[in-house]
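note to self — DONT lose this again. spent like an hour looking for the file last time. sequence + predicted structure for the chain T wanted, 256 res
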Amino acid sequence: QQCIAWKTSFIQLSRKHPATMNMHMNLEVLGEIEQYLLHFSESRKAFEQSLAICDTQTCRFKLAHWWLSKHNPDRNLDHALEQLDRAMALIDANPRLTGAARRHFTDKIDSTRATALLAEGPQHAINLLIPRLRDAEAHHGSSSPELARLLQVLCKAYLMDESVDAPLQLSLALASAIRLCEIRTALHHGTPDHSEIGTAQWYLALCHERLGNIEQARVAAREALRICEHNARGPADPEVAQARATVDRLARSRVP
């Protein structure tokens, strides 16, 4: 309901002040709101209108996420990578970006690129992520949003890997998920029901499940479902459905 209210405010603002110099930023935020509400055609239109006013790396980055959204019927890996390349080119061409800001944007782009590369196989993403994780921890600290983003993609890559080293990979996935939960909880200590904590708990449940730790998996999955329901975007919210399916599957699993 809050997102719908924000959407209404942005639309009213754009009609009242169509020539304001910050309109491209308003349209960018409107695109995010529409995507959150799963209105993908309206979301893309807002992003493209924003880029027509001012071509920025943040909007290119968000449009890449639009192309990568698993709920988007027009999901396209190549288009996502193209937007990330354009965002990186804008960063490289901007002499005003400081070292810290440049690293911040680069980390975001690399984590998104790794997510895209998962479609080509988890090892591609793992090879990209490992050195970036070390850089992110060195430059941003051990409890930073940048590190959490990279850890989440790494955890997903480990879970996808079905190579001969799968037991080792699953142990690494569990370690990544535990650390991800710790960082997300620290970052959102004032909002214990934040959606990012729910996502981290869901990954933790998957790791425990794959390792046969069914009781631990059930605890994490129930917490993920509780948080997803708290943040539901309507009766058919896909994140709620995903978490509920995990809880139901684990309820049928036998404890070793």
